[in-house]
Design a protein that fits this description.
The chain is of the alpha/beta class. The protein has helices spanning 12-28, 44-50, 68-71, 74-92, 105-114, 130-135, 175-181, 201-210, 226-236, 252-258, 268-276, 293-303, 317-328, 331-344, 349-362; strands at 3-7, 33-39, 54-58, 96-99, 119-123, 141-144, 159-161, 189-194, 218-223, 242-246, 261-264, 281-283, 307-309.
């Protein structure tokens, strides 16, 4: 029996790629076992069980870019994380460990390398995180989403450029059913607003102040994040425009299907989903992302004519409302942006990543060959 362990978490950007790979792997190998390692307090505590996967938690912390004092305790947190990850690995005995980023992935993947268990990393961003930059020297395979990542990683032949995996159900939704799911109507253009899995206070407040400038024949689907939900939901009720507000949307496939225009941050996974669904967008990169990678992500879409970018330092309610007006009032331009967005999408990334996982499981260099039985694969 093969067992794959996914290690990563804290934010949706690290969790959902693992979920996408796990769902694809489960589709091929219904008898395989899939387990997750996350961190206490991360979004994985809610998301992973929702998809029917078992989750084990470790308590560790990563390097802080804001507090030097908290970094003094980093060795203690790392030791604790390694100790707990060791217990999980001994108990689960995985055939393969896949890291998807975040500090929670580091202890599990590094220990797997030391235990001679096959390992793989899936890196979402153009600028790899600290965990990826260290682990890349030890793991068997590193799967990248951006060719620019190579400049930050040690040279070698273990890299594959594949893209970010998305869940298959994101791009198989009917618009009419999706609109009905959110209580929206078919004769209005729909603006989908969200600031990533945890929300963006800046984006929420700016969009709130531009609501009065929007046309009444448009409607809003809005994921605010938990922190701003109560305030936004209360204030939206005072507005004349049709809007439905949620702290978190689990069914993102329906959200994208319902939308005519997406307004969001520019995280790697978000853009992978937007392009796979072929949606035009207005992107506001998070200015404090490592190496300003969100700006680089957004610029790539803007250069291709798939999106419009507004830097946060230039973001005002007036500017945002003008951009929305410009796009939603020009059907031809909106359609062209959607087509260009779709051409940039990589909907097969999850399948290609599972192909790489299969290669590691088949490897004759490890003592796991007998666990990988060809007959267990489910043909579509």
């Amino acid at each position: 029996m093969i067992k794959v362990m996914f290690a990563g978490g804290k934010t949706g950007g690290h969790i959902f790629p693992a979920i996408a790979m796990a769902l694809e792997f489960r589709k091929r190998y219904s008898q395989g076992k899939l387990v997750f390692v996350g961190t206490k307090g991360g979004m994985e505590e809610r998301i992973v069980p929702h998809y029917g996967f078992r989750l084990s938690l470790i308590q560790t912390k990563g390097l802080s870019r804001r507090s030097y004092i908290s970094n003094l305790l980093l060795p203690f947190h790392l030791f604790k994380g390694f100790y707990q990850a060791q217990k999980i690995l001994n108990r689960e005995k995985p055939s393969l460990v896949v890291g998807t980023g975040g500090y929670v992935s580091f202890p599990a993947v590094m220990l797997a390398c030391l235990k001679n268990i096959p390992t793989m990393i899936q890196e979402q961003n153009s600028y790899p995180g600290i965990s990826t930059r260290i682990l890349a020297r030890f793991v068997d395979k590193v799967c990248l989403s951006h060719s620019g990542s190579l400049r930050y990683l040690p040279s070698g032949r273990k890299f594959s450029l594949i893209g970010n995996p998305i869940r298959e159900n994101l791009i198989r939704k009917e618009k009419s059913a999706a609109l009905a799911e959110f209580g929206l109507v078919a004769d209005k253009k729909t603006i989908f607003v969200f600031g990533g899995s945890q929300g963006s206070h800046v984006l929420n407040q700016t969009f709130l102040h531009c609501l009065d400038r929007l046309k009444p024949d448009w409607q809003i689907l809005w994921q605010t994040g938990e922190r701003d939900f109560q305030e936004i939901a209360r204030k939206v009720k005072e507005k004349k425009i049709t809007a439905t507000v949620h702290p978190f949307i689990q069914d993102m496939g329906s959200a994208y299907a319902a939308s005519d225009l997406v307004i969001s941050r520019a995280g790697a996974l978000t853009l992978a989903e937007i392009t796979a669904c072929g949606k035009p967008s207005i992107l506001i990169p998070f200015p404090f992302a490592t190496a300003d990678h969100q700006r680089h992500n957004a610029e790539a879409l803007e250069r291709k004519g798939a999106a419009r970018m507004i830097l946060e330092k230039n973001l005002t309610a007036e500017r945002l409302a003008d951009e929305i007006e410009s796009l939603l009032s020009d059907e031809t331009r909106l359609k062209q942006m959607a087509e260009r967005s779709g051409k940039m999408g990589k909907p097969q990334a999850a399948s290609m990543l599972v192909d790489e996982m299969e290669k590691l499981l088949r490897s004759g260099n490890r003592n796991i060959g007998h666990q990988f039985v060809e007959g267990t694969r489910q043909e579509a």
